[in-house]
Each structure stands twice: as C-alpha cells, then as structure tokens.
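Dataset card, provenance and construction

Sequences and ligand SMILES were collected as paired inputs. For each pair, a complete structure of the chain with the small molecule in place was predicted and serialized as structure tokens. The example below shows a pair involving zinc ion. Curators did not alter the output after generation; any descriptive sentences attached to a record were derived from the structure itself.
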Amino acid sequence: MPPSPERYFPTDYRQGRKAFITACEKAGIDSIARVHPTAKGPDGKPLFIDSAAMGPRGAKRALLLIAGTHGVEGYFGSGVETGLLREGLAAPEGARIVLVHALNPFGFAWDRRVNEDNVDLNRNFVDHAHPPDNPDYATLADAIAYRDASPAAVARADAVLLAYAKAHGAAKLREAISRGQYRFPKGLHYGGVAASWSHKMLRAILTEDLARVEKLVVIDFHTGLGETGAGEMIVEAAPASAIYRRAQAMWGGMVASSENGESVSAPLTGTLDQALAGWLPRVELTFAALEVGTRPFETVWDALRRDNWQNNFAPDQRLAGEIRQGCRDAFYPDTPEWKHAVFGHAQKAVAGALAAL
Ligand SMILES: [Zn+2]
C-alpha cells in the first residue's frame, strides 16, 4: 500500500514552506524565494513566494501549478505540491513543470483568503484604470460585509440577502457577492485598486520561467466550494470552446464551466485565468482551478464574513483567535479522509495534464 498522503499536508504556512523547499532539494531542483517587501507572518518573520522548476528552461510545453492564490486555501495546494515532489513528479521529455508555493503568503500565514490589503487576488487582474462595475454588490454591500456582528444585526443583514435571492434567484445573489467588486475596500471579493505584489510576482515567474512556452496547462489549487471532498476542474470557457474541449480531453467528467451555471463557481472578473490569457496571447493556454469542497456552504460563508468583520470592523481582538481558527477549519478540514480524497483529485488532474503534454 502506498504511504498516506496525509503527511504531506502542512500545519501552517511556515511548516508548509519548509516542507516544499525540502521536497525540492530531495527532487534535485532549486527553489527560488521572493520575499514580501512589507508583510510579516504571525511569528513576525518575513513571508515568501517560493517557486521551482524542472525540465529545460526553453521548453515549448509546460505545466504550471499554483498553490495559495487564496491564502488559507494554500494548505491544500502546499500539501499537493510537496506530495507530488516527494512521490517523484517528473516532466515529460522536453517539457517543463513550474511550481509556485504560496502565491498569497500573507493569507496563508494568517489563515485568511485575502491578501495584506484585503484583496481577493483572484479578482485583482483587471485594468485598474477601468475596473468592472458590480452594481448588484453595491446594492447589498452592507448586508454582505456587515459592520455589526451582533446576532440581531447579522439576522437583519441575512434578511436583506434572502429578499434579494427571492426576487432575483439564488444564482444571481451568488454572482453579485462573488463575481468581484472594486468599490468597497472593506468588503468581500474586493479586487483592489492596483496590481498587488503577488500579481507582479506571478508575472515575473512567467517571464523568467516560461518565456518560450507555446502550450501551457495551468492548475490553480482552491478549496471551499462544492461537496466535502469532491473535486471539480473549473474552466472559464463555454462548453463549445476549444479550451473546454482540451480540458475535457485531460480531465474528462471533472471539468465544469463557470460560464453557464454547471460549475460550483459563478462567472468572475479579474482572475488569474484571464490574466494569463492576456499576458500570453499566442500561447495555447488551458487553465483550470481545481476546486475541492470542504464544509457546507453556510459554514464557509459564515467564516468569510466573520473574518472580514474581525479584520475591518471589529472594535477589539477578543474574537480574533476563534475567528481565525474558524476560517482555517472552513477551508482546510484537517482530517485523513479529506486529505486522501483531495490529494487523489490533484494527482489525477496533474497526471491528465502531463499526459496531454
Ligand atoms: Zn479559492
């Protein structure tokens, strides 16, 4: 029986980083550390994006794996990258594999989904001179990101959202909340006002490590949506598109489009997928977010709102520890069964991508 993948999953950002670097060393590849210019972890120490690559630098075919775009979701991606390396991940002849560990190290270290500026990194890749409008979010802003966390105030906020869902449908509400917004810095799914540090570092990694690529597959590891332990390869392309067909050839029934309601995700603005498509217009790009389910939707939603309240509106730190733990639990079910299931999805996704390269 193969060893359990459980041991690859980290206890926190710092330990996950160490395990990733050690796994790179054991695999005989160098990792590169990019230090965050200002942010520090709860331990007061610097934070890093680490990356590593195998296969020729001038490769025309490549696989890019990204962990921790959404901070706290990085427990999953970190465990996967370390585990794949420890189990002998290898690039097909002439192809390259690039691994990015903790694209949003602040969120990972602090158990938050957002970065150091309350920005959802996967909404940050827009033209900030002309950000997309989200009028539906604006209508609901105070109900989504409540300022008062007392039970009565939260019940009032929930009633506003429920009324919206009754009038416009649950899917429309979900989209209003999660699509991305650029006007409320203390709100949820805020895309920021400028390219974040992580955004710039991702661009640098592409320039340095994938300059010659013509065919690129990307898997960005996420958690929080869907049934506990289930996995879905979310593509931001319509089912009739060439991208969707390529994704299906690699991942079969795991593929779901966010554009037609078949995915657990609503259509989004400012995503990594859209960024890469813009930066690499001549590359045959197949980008998927491997989204694995953690807890019931209500639990995840509650954790996100409480985290937002604590970090933007709370009068003191009394509930900070409990709220941080709640966010970690919501995005990282620390159980052997869950780790086994989600590591299996990741292995399958990576094997499918490598076979296509
Ligand atoms: Zn995510």
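Derived descriptions for this record:
The first helix runs from residue 13 to 26.
The longest strand covers residues 215-228.
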